[in-house]
Amino acid sequence: MDITYYLYLSAVLFTIGAVGVLVRRNAIVVFMCVELMLNAVNLSLVTFARMNSNLDGQVIAFFVMVVAAAEVVIGLAIIMSIFRSRRSASVDDANLLKY
Amino acid sequence: MIPILILSIFSGGFAIFSIVAGSLSGPKRFNRAKLESYECGIEPAPQAFRGHRLPVKYYLTAMLFIVFDIEIVFLYPWAVAFNKLGMFGLVEMILFIATVFVVYAYVWRRGGLEWD
Amino acid sequence: MAAADFTAPSIAYGALMPVLIPAGAAIVGVLVDAFAPSTIRWRAQVVVALAGLAGALVACGILAGEHHVTADTAISVDGPALFLQGTIAVLGIASVLLVADRSPGMDGGAFVASAATTPGSADERASIRSGRIQTEVFPLMMFAVTGMMLFPASNDLLLLFVALEVLSLPLYLLCGLARRRRLLSQEAAVKYFLLGAFASAFFLYGLALLYGYAGTVSLGGIHDAAVSGQHNDTLLFLGLALLAVGLLFKVGAAPFHSWIPDVYQGAPTPITAFMASATKVAGFGALLRVFYVSFGGLGWEWRPVAWGIAIMTMIVGSIFAITQTDVKRMLAYSSIAHAGFILIGIIALNKSGLSGSMFYLLTYGITTVGAFGVLTLVRDPDGEATHLSRWAGLGRRSPLVAGVFALFLLALAGIPLTSGFTGKFAVFSAGVSGGATPLVIVGVITSAMAAFFYVRVIVLMFFADPLEDGPVVVIPGGATSSAIAISVAVTVVLGVFPQPLLNLANHAVPFYH
């Protein structure tokens, strides 16, 4: 099977994630879309590792996973705190900051 | 090949033995709780938000779990290359684990591990 | 794919001291939070943080003039890295001093008593009464400083990414810790977090594509592959563009600037000072290294886009700043405009562009910390008085504070005899010598536009009638006073007598990889 298919799949996943960030309203869902983007990147990385026949890409994928986990924790903490103050996780309800 | 075969026979046999032995030897007293999807923890609710909100402590535990769980991922490459990295790798890994342990000490002291 | 032969990398720990000392201070800070009794915690944290930053500054001084490429070429501690690390240490010291001030006039400091309590709840009132405060601010700041120290020294895209996250994650949290107007602060944190994570995903995809292009993520390796021109150019340019999105987001260049005003306004003011100065220094440090080392040979390909971004950033920053009615938001837009000016130094792509940008970052950072420091002093009963109308006539009631603020505004505007002028001059002349004269002309015009709104504030402070119920100017504690005094001194000295530091910046170039 042609290995570039994985790259196409990764690009599609990344795009779905990016579109999701832009159109979804719930902060948790937005955040999950970001995670989808990161995982799309991981798929690219391991595919390129295979294509370049070196292991760097796989190691980088580990780092991405760890950083993504740290990001989940920070993000959930922040979203939880705003949810508890407002009883809503919609990014549209957060509108105090403007001119 | 042979060790894998033996191992799979053992593991499969143990699984079957456990299930059969459990169903033969255990008392059978049914109650409502046993018909739930999970015998412990929260009741599965049709709506997680609005109606039945999950207690915050679940999130706290989940967050702590994610962090400490995923740090272990770095132990695998290190273990694979342990012989070549030698003392250098060992010292670096001890530093890494020590850093994670500092965070653990913080969580413990500030009550992050207390359930109630 | 057999495991490739490799040898354990050697790490020059001595050269990494500017990174390791703040990291150690952060870990000690976590231990202090875990084990020290709550009565001495705040003091102990301040001491640990300041000691860590001072140690890092001393380490930069000792290492000056050396260059090490270490950790299997992942880290390059060279002149520009050390210059920027020293700058970040100084800005960190000033910001920590602003954070540390809990003198009576400050009404409990800028930070929340307990971040876990819901705003407006009985728990929150109880936590305020108990005199508690979230001492985690200091370790978080030190972790952020660690990331910032690593950011301009990263010689490898993976390390760049890790440093980016190490500096961003604590900042997301710090944004949400304001003591007053907590909803605003939490909203700023959510916005910053979601957009920051979005931008780092783009950065990461760029990293993956460049790895696919060059087979390596080291900046030198990507440079070699780009020069040889034997690979798939689509990957190179897509990767470069996505990478640039992530970095330009961090420094707040248009069109990736939309988070800056909101986050700067909502965050606690000392943290805004820290973000506006130190983060920008670190971000531009990384941008400079990536574009000078990896993509310097491709200048013709990316410069037209960079020109567009620089022009847009300068214009957006200057025009929107005029329409603002909130001092914090105005300073936020001014920081966007400044990002545009520094981009000229990157586009120049020559030695004086590099040294000029570094000098500019130092002058801009110090002045910005001072300006936000003054903001913390002008207070209403419910916190800082950030609305512009509240500042009317301040110069008559508190000439000293208003005068200091006016000095910072003039420096940001780039008036001669302030550090802002020398910085702008250095960057603009580098731009001209680098063949970006039209860009410099736009820069000068937007500087003039920007001067308009700085002067408008000064006029408002000194020539408008004071308000009846105007804000109180509190007597700052020793910490805030020293932070502002440092800023004033540097702003004036670098305006009148910039040559030693300019020489230092000139000797710091070029990058080693």
Short description:
By secondary structure, chain A is mainly α. Chain A has helices spanning 4-23, 27-51, 56-86. Chain C is built from 20 helices and five strands.
State Rg of chain B.
Answer: 22 Å
Helix/strand-derived class of chain A? mainly alpha
Biggest beta sheet attributes of chain B: none
| Biggest β-sheet strands, sense, barrel of chain A | none
The helix/strand class of chain B is mainly alpha
Q: Note the beta-strand portion of chain B.
A: under 5%
| SSE topology string of chain A | HHH
End-to-end Cα distance of chain A? 55 Å
Query: What percent of the residues of chain B sit in helical stretches (DSSP H or I)?
Result: 55-70%
The DSSP helix count of chain B reads: 4
Q: Kindly provide the name of the CATH class of chain B.
A: Mainly Alpha
Query: Spans of chain B with pLDDT under 50 lasting ≥5 residues?
Result: none
Topology of this structure?
The complex is a heterotrimer of chains A (about 100), B (about 120) and C (about 525).
Chain A: H1 4-23, H2 27-51, H3 56-86
Helix pairs in contact in A: 1-2, 2-3
Chain B: H1 2-25, H2 56-71, H3 75-80, H4 82-109
Chain C: H1 17-35, H2 38-63, E1 68-70, E2 75-77, H3 79-100, H4 122-129, H5 137-150, H6 157-175, H7 182-214, H8 219-228, H9 233-251, H10 259-266, H11 269-294, H12 299-322, H13 327-348, H14 351-375, E3 378-380, E4 383-384, H15 394-397, H16 399-413, H17 419-433, H18 437-463, E5 472-473, H19 478-496, H20 499-508
Antiparallel strand pairs in C: 1-2, 3-4, 3-5
Helix pairs in contact in C: 1-2, 1-5, 2-3, 2-5, 3-5, 3-11, 3-14, 3-19, 3-20, 5-6, 5-11, 6-7, 6-11, 7-8, 7-9, 7-10, 9-11, 10-11, 10-13, 11-13, 11-14, 12-13, 12-18, 13-14, 13-17, 13-18, 14-16, 14-17, 14-19, 14-20, 16-18, 17-18, 17-19
